[in-house]
């Protein structure tokens, strides 16, 4: 009787161990197959990532090319328009509209804001832009308690005719300080009164939404200078006993009347040389670097090979020799909407890092090679307007609208000094030997502190000091002098005693040894060339001037930007300088000694 067992004499084919081995072999084969698939998937993912990076790089390259081509066409259109106007053709307003630029940055802390909308508006319309334009959203509040609705000291409304800082408007009745007076529309298409033009708040933020011809352009007809201008030596004919300040007002020279050796013209720029000084410099445009927003700051690396710019939401680094972008630094963790202007950039001495200061009160120190943020310093309570690296590569100084100067140690990753003053800080600079830090303020003064003790060394102000807010400071390479630029339209050179005298209680002290007068509007940026041979300045009058630091005489005036020159920076290796402007351009220029 068979009970389910195999018949006797028949051995089962394979035992339990053989079946188990077969199953294990199947599992192993399936595992190896899946492993291979995983490797294949990883390879595919890697290739996709590489393709995405290539696409991203190409899109960025195309975007840069598009911006450059657009800028080229805009410049060419503007040049043709100027030629048409010079020949008596139709005006730009009736025949051609240059593509409008996006609104400039809105920077400040509410309607009365910290810096008062420097770049536009007029005295008779409530001061130089004491409120943001109507189309802008309300600004965040947070004013220091002593700033009332009239704005900070030095920016209160003053009587005077409205000024226009756009294109030159010929005609005796329209001239206001060498610039045309704007039309005064009374009503909008809907019948409502139009608000007066006002600039957005913030230091050095221009308000001009279309490219404009530059004052004094040879393609634009100029009115015949009145007799008193000729008598005062403001035209080419030399006259005796001309005051120094008038001889430095190079914007008033009639370029048509200047001899060839006292002027130089490029495609969209020109330079005039002071007829009352021996010409010793030449100047040329090397690169035009279009951006997609206002260029708030420019700075060279210490080896002179790169220049960094700060604009809306990002900092960019360009190769000085080729003019090509080599790095685009943007914090990807931030929201994608809204403005965030980079107000200051600064390379570390070894060129490895770029520090940026922005409206979000954060200092970011970027590792340029990896494009990653290495350090992030927080503590300021208002926008950061200025940064400077010490030559030792370890300390960064920052100045903010919160009325403080702070020093940060990169090695320790922390704040090491906190200096408070009575008003907003607009600019900071560390001395060449890293012993001192200087700061300019809305209270019209320049202060210098000892970086090791935090003690106030000298306060530069008084009878011979600035009459309005100080916007830029720079140490001379020798470290024994300091230059400052102000909204009073002047530059001052200060002598620093050696060793600096400690000032009990921070009382007024210091000696102004020279005042440079000649700009037609606010001086927004100052610097000295590497060996201290020249003082360089940029202004709201859209001009750049070179000054002899020993005599105070202007050597040349350069006009090319179509809006305020917000930032100027000489190359530490000499021979080049960069400019940043509200016209959404940075430019690299060459200056050279005539043989």
Automatic annotation (TrEMBL):
It comes from the Eukaryota. Pfam families: Tup_N, WD40. PROSITE patterns: WD_REPEATS_1, WD_REPEATS_2, WD_REPEATS_REGION. The keyword Amino-acid biosynthesis does not apply. Residues 130-162, 182-204, 218-228 have a biased composition (Pro residues). Keywords: Repeat, Repressor, Transcription, Transcription regulation, WD repeat. WD repeats lie at residues 342-376, 377-418, 425-459, 463-496, 516-548, 558-595. Residues 19-87 form the Transcriptional repressor Tup1 N-terminal domain. InterPro entries: Tscrpt_rep_Tup1_N, WD40/YVTN_repeat-like_dom_sf, WD40_PAC1, WD40_repeat_CS, WD40_repeat_dom_sf, WD40_rpt. Gene3D superfamilies: 1.20.5.340, YVTN repeat-like/Quinoprotein amine dehydrogenase. Residues 89-99 have a biased composition (Low complexity). SUPFAM superfamilies: WD40 repeat-like (SSF50978). Residues 85-245 are annotated as: Disordered. PANTHER family: F-BOX AND WD REPEAT DOMAIN CONTAINING 7, WD40 REPEAT PROTEIN. This is WD40 repeat-like protein. It comes from Aaosphaeria arxii CBS 175.79.
């Amino acid at each position: 009787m068979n009970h389910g067992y195999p018949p006797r004499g028949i051995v089962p084919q394979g035992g339990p161990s053989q079946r188990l081995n077969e199953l294990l072999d199947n599992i192993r084969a399936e595992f190896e197959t899946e492993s291979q698939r995983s490797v294949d998937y990883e390879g595919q993912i890697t290739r996709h990532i590489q393709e995405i990076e290539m696409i991203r790089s190409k899109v960025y390259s195309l975007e840069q090319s598009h911006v450059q081509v657009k800028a080229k066409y805009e410049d060419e259109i503007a040049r043709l328009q100027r030629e048409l106007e010079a020949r008596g053709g139709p005006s730009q307003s009736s025949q051609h509209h240059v593509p409008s630029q996006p609104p400039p940055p809105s920077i400040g802390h509410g309607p009365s804001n910290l810096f008062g909308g420097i770049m536009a508006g007029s005295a008779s319309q409530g001061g130089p832009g004491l409120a943001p334009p109507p189309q802008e959203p309300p600004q965040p509040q947070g004013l220091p308690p002593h700033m009332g609705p009239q704005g900070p000291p030095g920016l209160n409304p003053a009587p005077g005719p409205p000024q226009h800082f756009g294109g030159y408007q010929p005609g005796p009745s329209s001239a206001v300080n060498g610039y045309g007076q704007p039309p005064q529309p009374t009503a909008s298409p809907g019948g409502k009164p139009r608000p007066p033009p006002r600039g957005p708040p913030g230091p050095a933020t221009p308000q001009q939404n279309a490219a404009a011809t530059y004052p004094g352009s040879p393609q634009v007809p100029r009115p015949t200078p009145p007799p008193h201008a000729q008598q005062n030596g403001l035209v080419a004919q030399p006259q005796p006993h001309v005051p120094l300040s008038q001889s430095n007002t190079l914007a008033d020279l009639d370029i048509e009347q200047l001899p060839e050796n006292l002027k130089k013209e490029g495609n969209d720029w020109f330079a005039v040389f002071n007829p009352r000084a021996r010409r010793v410099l030449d100047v040329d445009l090397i690169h035009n670097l279009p951006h997609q927003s206002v260029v708030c700051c420019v700075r060279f690396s210490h080896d002179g090979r790169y220049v960094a710019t700060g604009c809306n939401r990002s900092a960019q680094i360009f190769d000085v020799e080729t003019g090509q972008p080599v790095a685009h630094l943007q914090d990807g963790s931030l929201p994608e909407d809204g403005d965030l202007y980079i107000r200051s950039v600064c390379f570390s001495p070894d060129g490895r890092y770029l520090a940026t200061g922005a409206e979000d009160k954060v200092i970011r120190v970027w590792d340029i090679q990896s494009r990653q943020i290495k350090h992030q310093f927080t503590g300021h309570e208002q926008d950061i307007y200025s940064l400077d690296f010490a030559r030792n590569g370890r300390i960064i100084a920052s100045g903010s609208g919160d009325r403080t100067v702070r020093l940060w140690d990169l090695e320790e990753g922390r704040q090491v000094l906190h200096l408070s003053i009575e008003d907003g800080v607009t600019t900071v600079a560390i001395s060449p030997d890293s012993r001192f830090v200087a700061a300019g303020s809305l209270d019209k003064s320049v202060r210098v502190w000892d970086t090791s003790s935090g003690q106030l060394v000298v306060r530069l102000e008084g009878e011979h000091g600035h009459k309005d807010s100080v916007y830029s400071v720079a140490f001379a390479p020798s470290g024994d002098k300091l230059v400052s630029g102000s909204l009073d339209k002047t530059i001052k050179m200060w002598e620093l005693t050696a060793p600096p005298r400690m000032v009990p209680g921070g009382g007024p002290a210091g000696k102004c040894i020279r005042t440079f007068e000649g700009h037609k509007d606010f001086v927004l940026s100052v610097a000295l060339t590497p060996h201290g041979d020249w003082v360089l300045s940029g202004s709201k009058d859209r001009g750049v001037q070179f000054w002899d630091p020993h005599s105070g005489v202007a050597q040349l005036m350069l006009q090319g930007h179509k809006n305020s020159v917000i930032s100027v920076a000489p190359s530490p290796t000499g021979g080049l300088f960069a400019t940043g402007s509200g016209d959404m351009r940075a430019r690299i220029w060459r200056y050279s000694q005539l043989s």
